[in-house]
C-alpha cells in the first residue's frame, strides 16, 4: 500500500502540480490581470501541498522509513526520545538486538507506537518503560506505564487501536497480553517467535 501510494498517488500529484504551474504562467502572461483566477490558483496550490504532505505522512505511518534504514532498536530509541520530548514523560528503554523478519519488526514497532499514543493521550502517566528481549527462542516486546488504567472489562475495541494490534500480532503467530491494575499502571506486551537470519556469507544450498 505504501509503495502504491508513493508511485501512483505521487504521479497524480506531480501531474497536478505541473498543470498548476502551466496555468499560473499562462495567467501571468495575459494582458489583463485576472486576480480572482490567481487567487483560486493560489488556493489550489496550497491544497495540493497539503495533499502531498498528507500522502507523505500516510506512507511514513504505513512503513516508517527510519526502521529499515537504522534497524528496529535504533528506530524504537528514536521514537522513545521523540515521545519523551513531546509528552514530557520519562521513558526508559531496555532493547536487545534480535533476529526478526521484516513483518515482525513492523508489528513490534506498531505495537509500541500505538501503546505510546494511548499513554500520551489517556494514561496520565509520569514514567514509561520500553523493553525488547529474547527468552527461550521467543521475543517479547512490552510497553509499561505508571498511569491510570482503562477498564479491562470493556471490549478491546475501546482500547484505541490495541484490538488491531492484537490481530497483527496473531497474524505473525504471536500472542498479545494487556495487564492493568490500579496503582500499577498498564503493561502491553507481545510475544513472537524469533526468526534467525542466515549470515550474509552463508553458502547457498545446491540446486536440485
Mind explaining what this structure looks like?
The two termini are 36 Å apart. This protein has a 5-stranded mixed β-sheet. The chain has 6 helices and 5 strands, in the order H-H-H-H-E-H-E-E-H-E-E. The protein is 52% helix and 19% strand. The protein folds into 2 domains: 2-62; 70-193, Histidine kinase-like ATPase, C-terminal domain (Heat Shock Protein 90). By secondary structure, it is of the alpha+beta class. The model is unreliable at 198-208 (pLDDT under 50).
Query: Level of helix content?
Result: 40-55%
CATH class of the largest domain: Alpha Beta
Sheet with most strands: strand arrangement: 1-2-3-5-4
The helix tally amounts to: 6
Order of helices and strands: HHHHEHEEHEE
**Count of DSSP strands:** 5
CATH superfamily heading of the largest domain: Histidine kinase-like ATPase, C-terminal domain
Distance N terminus to C terminus? 36 Å
Count structural domains.
2
CATH architecture descriptor of the largest domain: 2-Layer Sandwich
What would the CATH topology of the largest domain be?
Answer: Heat Shock Protein 90
Low-confidence stretches: 198-208
The radius of gyration is 23 Å
The secondary-structure class comes to alpha+beta
**Estimated share of beta-strand residues:** 15-25%
Major beta sheet, specifics? Answer: 5 strands, mixed
Task: Give the key terms.
elongated, five-stranded mixed sheet, 208 residues, Heat Shock Protein 90, 2 domains
Concise overview:
The chain is 52% helix and 19% strand. The protein contains six helices and five strands, in the order ααααβαββαββ. The chain has helices spanning 2-29, 35-62, 66-70, 72-87, 102-123, 162-171, and strands spanning 90-95, 127-135, 138-145, 175-181, 185-193.
Amino acid at each position: 500500500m505504501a509503495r502504491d501510494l508513493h508511485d501512483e498517488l505521487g504521479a497524480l500529484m506531480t501531474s497536478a502540480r505541473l498543470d498548476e504551474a502551466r496555468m499560473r504562467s499562462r495567467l501571468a502572461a495575459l494582458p489583463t490581470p485576472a486576480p480572482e483566477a490567481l487567487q483560486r490558483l493560489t488556493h489550489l496550490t496550497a491544497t495540493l501541498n497539503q495533499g502531498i504532505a498528507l500522502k507523505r505522512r500516510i506512507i511514513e505511518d504505513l512503513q516508517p522509513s527510519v526502521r529499515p534504514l537504522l534497524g528496529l532498536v535504533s528506530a524504537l530509541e528514536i521514537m522513545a526520545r521523540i515521545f519523551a520530548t513531546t509528552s514530557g514523560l520519562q521513558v526508559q528503554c531496555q532493547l536487545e538486538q534480535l533476529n526478526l523478519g521484516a513483518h515482525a519488526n513492523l508489528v513490534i514497532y506498531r505495537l509500541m507506537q500505538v501503546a505510546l499514543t494511548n499513554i500520551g493521550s489517556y494514561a496520565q502517566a509520569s514514567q514509561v518503560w520500553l523493553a525488547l528481549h529474547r527468552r527461550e527462542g521467543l521475543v517479547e516486546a512490552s510497553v509499561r506505564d505508571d498511569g491510570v488504567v482503562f477498564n479491562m472489562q470493556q471490549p478491546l475495541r475501546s482500547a484505541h487501536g490495541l484490538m488491531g494490534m492484537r490481530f497483527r500480532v496473531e497474524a505473525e503467530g504471536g500472542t498479545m497480553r494487556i495487564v492493568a491494575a490500579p496503582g500499577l499502571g498498564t503493561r502491553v506486551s507481545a510475544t513472537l517467535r524469533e526468526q534467525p537470519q542466515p549470515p550474509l556469507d552463508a553458502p547457498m544450498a545446491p540446486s536440485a
